[in-house]
Specification:
Layout (H helix, E strand, L loop, with lengths): L1 E5 L4 H10 L6 E6 L11 E5 L17 E4 L11 H16 L5 E7 L23 H16 L3 E6 L2 E2 L4 H4 L10 E3 L5 E2 L2 E2 H12 L7 E5 L5 E2 H6 L5 E3 L2 H13 L4 H14 L6
Parallel strand pairs: 1-2, 1-4, 2-3, 4-5, 5-6, 6-11, 7-10, 8-13
Antiparallel strand pairs: 9-12
Length: about 280
């Protein structure tokens, strides 16, 4: 089985490649403008290419069975995040649209938006992203689902592992070492690298039907008390008499994109954020 991976040198990709490289019947191809020479003694082949440019057909092996598309700028790291990510996806889709492959796309739960939602969010629920990153993922999903009959979309929850950046956003007030407690019963869905690899391996072995959308998360959610206990620092609690009127006001004015974005951000910080 021959698998081509974009984003194989990224935070998620590196871990996933290590696991896939252990499978005897799998041959890996990483397409990237970054070449990691440490990979040269494995059965991994690196294709040097900038994914912001169209991919010449002669650069793509003819025997690829599965494409795993991970490459993307993360979240709102710059103003061009949607344009760049959609261009990358368009180029990889165009390279394989006329080939018989299974296309596995790493999307994000950012496609949903968090404000005024009933949790846990299901894959059949509507999408209303608050960020350019989420809007780009929605656009990419539409392109992929219309281009490949055999595709699976993974809407990945915030990832925890060696880098707990996403977890720490739910622990400390921005720019401080002060832990915060919510007046709501906070609970979150996260995805570990172990879970990500397990799901991808199951897809490769044919254990998921094509055309499926999956909220990729750990089987157990993470509650506020567990998260706060992992880290040092003094904790303060947001009073319900402050947060309740604040969210009521934000909900009224969430027709404004700017207010909606703030509402989503505070919902992620202070309320339940779980997925089925």
């Amino acid at each position: 089985m021959n698998i081509l991976i974009t984003g194989g040198y990224g935070a998620i990709g590196r871990k996933l490649v290590v696991e896939l490289d252990k499978i005897n019947h799998v041959k890996l191809y990483l397409i990237s403008r970054s070449i990691d020479l440490k990979k040269r003694d494995t059965k991994i082949t690196t294709i040097s290419h900038d994914l912001l440019e169209p991919i010449p057909d002669n650069k793509i092996p003819s025997n690829i069975n599965i494409v795993i598309h991970l490459a993307a700028l993360a979240h709102d790291s710059n103003a061009d995040v949607m344009e760049v990510n959609c261009l990358i996806t368009e180029n990889i889709v165009n390279a394989f649209v006329n080939k018989k492959v299974k296309f596995l796309f790493f999307s994000s739960v950012a496609v949903y938006g968090e404000a005024n939602r009933k949790f846990p969010i299901k894959t059949t629920d509507y999408c209303k992203p608050s960020s350019l990153y989420g809007r780009g993922k929605v656009k990419d999903e539409v392109l992929i689902s219309s281009s490949f009959q055999d595709h699976i979309i993974l809407r990945i929850c915030p990832v925890i592992g060696d880098d707990d950046t996403d977890l720490l956003k739910r622990v400390y007030l921005p720019g401080t070492m002060i832990k915060y407690k919510s007046s709501y019963n906070r609970e979150y869905s996260f995805a570990s690298h172990t879970t990500i690899s397990k799901v991808v391996l199951n897809i490769i072995e044919g254990n998921y039907t094509k055309g499926r959308v999956i909220n990729l998360r750990d089987s157990q959610n993470y509650c506020e008390s567990y998260i706060l206990a992992k880290y040092p620092g003094k904790a303060v609690k947001f009073p319900w008499l402050v947060t309740q009127p604040l969210f009521a006001l934000l909900n009224v004015f969430s027709f404004s994109p700017g207010v909606y974005k703030i509402n989503c951000l505070l919902t992620k910080m202070l309320k339940i954020n779980t997925y089925e």
